[in-house]
Amino acid sequence: MRTKRIFEHAPEVDAIVLMNATEPQVDMSFFYVTGLTSGLFERCAAIVYPHGVEIVVSSLEEESARKGECEVSVFADKKERDSILREKLKGLNSIGINADEMTYTSYLTLQKITDAEIVDVSQAIRNARLVKDAEEIQRTRKACHIISRVADEIPNLVTESMTELELAAEVVYSMQKKGASGPSFPTLVCFGKNASEPHHSSNDTPLQRGDFILVDMGASYNCYVSDITRTYIFGEADEKQIDMYETVLKSQEIGLDAMKDGVDGKNVYMKVKKFLDGKYRGRFIHGLGHSIGLSVHDGEGMGNESETVLKEGMILTVEPGLYIPGYGGVRIEDDVLITKTGVDILTDAKKELQII
Fold it and tell me: What pTM was computed for the model?
């Protein structure tokens, strides 16, 4: 049970209260503990115990809330919500909160309605969410399958002179036709030298022969996400582009081969960085990957400052890249499930060099 797993990591508290504000300040851990997959649940709350969950929801969300298995209390306005919470929290000595996701306003509200000690248990929630259960893995597999099929379609979606925004729109349309509820983050399309900017915002740059086409994309399925990147070259490629691509592809293989249960994530990153710096010193400028789940960045990662020890059941991205300002960049990203002996690659889109 997910709630039990949180309390195994948490300091001793009587209950944990997850309080949502308005979008985008909605704590995805609310969906983690309730198992709900529809509804927004702004200004709603979950009271989490080791044995189960009660939720306090607005009348707007009542129908969605009752699709789950939690005890439901319904409020008409903020005053009634606070009254319900005050009654339910009466007599508790200590209450945990997810300080990473709670707004200051929600914190002050909780202080007013309870005399209990308030304890930050955000690390316990992160630790619990890092290792996925069977249902979480199944949903993530589906999200990965959807986005992999989209990636395989991209060579057929590309036309000369189309803009980055036009290709991004085609990618989102394709994933939703395949069953995604939507993108898990704004789709990032980079043409030509724009590919040297890891977080470039897609714009009206037109595609020209010889350009890199870097597409960073993800699909959401029943609240769980995928996150992959594929890089292509349009029309014709020069030797430097080909070498950059093959170098990044080899570096990803080095990272994947080093990953399994019990391995230090920082060590995996350092192996990949050493290889990339041997050919393109200083051009690998970000971490090797991050955990995914209900969120695209779901708690931990593999980088220079990482303290993550890989565990069976974790799902992480593996995304080495090379970036040369004014010229372009290459990134290859896949989502993998950590196993006892290695990794299960969940994204199976083609990643050999494609000149399209």
Answer: 0.94
**Cβ contacts of 284 within 8 Å, gap of 6 or more:** 251, 272, 273, 276, 277, 320, 321, 322, 323
- Angle made by CA atoms 42, 46, 48, in degrees to the nearest 5: 160
- CATH number, domain at 27? 3.40.350.10
Contact 315, 137 (CB under 8 A): yes
How does DSSP classify residue 59? G
**3-class SS of residue 317:** strand
239-257 per-position pLDDT tens digit? 999 999 999 999 999 999 9
- Assign residue 298 the CATH number of its domain: 3.90.230.10
Going by C-alpha positions, the residue among 246, 274, 243, 279 that lies closest to residue 258 is: 274
350 belongs to a structural domain: no
Choosing from 94, 111, 130, the residue where a domain stops is 130
Phi/psi-derived region of residue 189, left when phi > 0, alpha when psi is between -120 and 50, beta in every other case: beta
Give ∠ CA 96-40-49 in degrees, rounded to 5: 25
The contacts of residue 107 (CB under 8 Å, 6+ apart) are 97, 99, 118
Do 116 and 151 share a domain, yes or no? no
Burial of 15 from C-beta contacts in 10 A (0-12 / 13-18 / 19+): buried
Token pair belonging to 129:
């969410």
The two structure tokens encoding residue 206:
């037109």
What is the tens place of the pLDDT at every residue in 103-141?
999 999 999 999 999 999 999 999 999 999 999 999 999
Contacts of 108 (CB under 8 A, 6+ apart): none
Domain end position, chosen among 130, 164, 181:
130
Q: Could you list the residue range(s) of the whole structural domain that residue 84 is in?
A: 2-130
Phi, psi of 267 (to 5 degrees): -65, -35
Query: Which segments in the chain show pLDDT lower than 50?
Result: none
Contact 212, 157 (CB under 8 A): no
